[in-house]
C-alpha cells in the first residue's frame, strides 16, 4: 500500500516514480513482475492517472520497466539496478549547482587529458569548430551556452569512451540554466566573456598539442572559474531580487 500524495503534478510524478522504483529495487516487484494497473496505482497513490502515466514513462526511459502492448507494464530484467538520478528540484539550488560543478571538474579534467592522447584529426577538427562557435557567440554578444555544450561534447567524443560522453551529457542538463543566467550578466562585460573563450581555447590548444597534463590543468582551471562565476551570478541574482527599502525624507 502506498501513502497518498500532495504536491504539484511534476513532483507527484517524480515521487510516484521513486516509490515504484524503490519497490522494484527491494524486490517487492521483481524482474518480470507485472505492475498494478494504471487505475489501481492512481487509487493507491491518490493521484490522477496522468501522473501515474508520467511516472511510468520516466521508469520506462530509465529502463526499469517495459510496457507490453495489450498486456500491461512489467519490470525489466535490469529493473533492480539503480539508475543515476538527480531530482531537478534538488539540483536547482545554488549549493547543488556548485556541487555538480565540482563533479564536472573532476570528470572534465580527465576527459581533457584522455582527449589529448586519443583524439583523431577529425575529432580535433570538431573541437576547433566548436571553439569557433564559442568565439562567434562571444563576438555577437550571446551567452554561448549551447556552443559551450557542443565544445565539451566534442572533447568527450574524442576520448572514445561512450560512458564519459553519456555522463557529461547527463550532468550538463543541470547546469545549462544556471550558466545561461550567469552568462547573461557576463555578456554585459566583455572581459568576462573573453575570459570564458580564452579558458576554452587553452583546453583546445593543449589537446591539439597532445599534452594531457596541460589539458587536465586547463580543464580544471576552467571549471574552478566556472564555479566562481556561478557563485557570483547567484549572489548578483539574489541581490537584485532583494527588496529595496524606500526611505522617505521630510
From TrEMBL:
Keywords: DNA-binding, Transcription, Transcription regulation
Domain (HTH gntR-type): residue spans on this chain: 10-78
GO MF terms, alphabetically ordered: DNA binding; DNA-binding transcription factor activity
InterPro entries given in the database record: GntR_C (IPR011711), TF_FadR/GntR_C (IPR008920), Tscrpt_reg_HTH_GntR (IPR000524), WH-like_DNA-bd_sf (IPR036388), WH_DNA-bd_sf (IPR036390)
Pfam hit, one: GntR
Gene3D superfamilies reported in the protein's UniProt record: GntR ligand-binding domain-like, Winged helix-like DNA-binding domain superfamily/Winged helix DNA-binding domain
Protein name (Swiss-Prot/TrEMBL): Bacterial regulatory s, gntR family protein
Species, as recorded: Collimonas fungivorans
Record lineage: Bacteria, Pseudomonadati, Pseudomonadota, Betaproteobacteria, Burkholderiales
Amino acid at each position: 500500500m502506498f501513502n497518498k500524495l500532495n504536491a504539484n503534478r511534476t513532483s507527484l510524478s517524480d515521487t510516484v516514480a521513486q516509490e515504484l522504483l524503490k519497490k522494484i529495487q527491494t524486490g517487492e516487484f521483481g524482474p518480470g513482475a507485472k505492475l498494478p494497473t494504471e487505475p489501481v496505482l492512481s487509487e493507491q497513490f491518490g493521484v490522477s492517472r496522468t501522473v501515474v502515466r508520467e511516472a511510468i514513462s520516466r521508469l520506462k526511459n530509465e529502463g526499469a520497466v517495459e510496457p507490453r502492448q495489450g498486456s500491461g507494464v512489467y519490470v525489466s530484467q535490469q529493473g533492480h539496478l539503480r539508475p543515476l538520478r538527480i531530482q531537478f528540484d534538488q539540483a536547482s539550488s545554488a549549493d547543488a549547482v556548485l556541487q555538480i560543478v565540482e563533479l564536472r571538474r573532476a570528470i572534465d579534467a580527465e576527459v581533457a587529458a584522455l582527449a589529448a592522447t586519443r583524439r583523431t584529426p577529425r575529432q580535433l577538427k570538431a573541437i576547433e569548430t566548436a571553439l569557433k562557435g564559442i568565439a562567434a557567440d562571444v563576438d555577437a554578444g550571446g551567452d554561448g551556452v549551447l556552443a559551450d555544450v557542443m565544445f565539451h561534447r566534442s572533447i568527450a567524443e574524442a576520448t572514445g569512451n561512450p560512458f564519459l560522453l553519456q555522463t557529461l551529457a547527463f550532468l550538463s542538463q543541470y547546469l545549462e540554466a544556471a550558466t545561461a543566467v550567469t552568462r547573461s550578466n557576463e555578456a554585459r562585460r566583455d572581459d568576462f566573456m573573453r575570459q570564458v573563450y580564452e579558458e576554452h581555447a587553452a583546453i583546445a590548444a593543449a589537446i591539439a598539442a597532445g599534452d594531457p597534463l596541460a589539458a587536465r590543468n586547463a580543464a580544471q582551471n576552467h571549471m574552478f572559474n566556472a564555479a566562481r562565476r556561478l557563485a557570483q551570478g547567484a549572489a548578483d541574482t539574489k541581490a537584485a531580487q532583494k527588496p529595496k527599502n524606500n526611505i522617505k525624507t521630510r
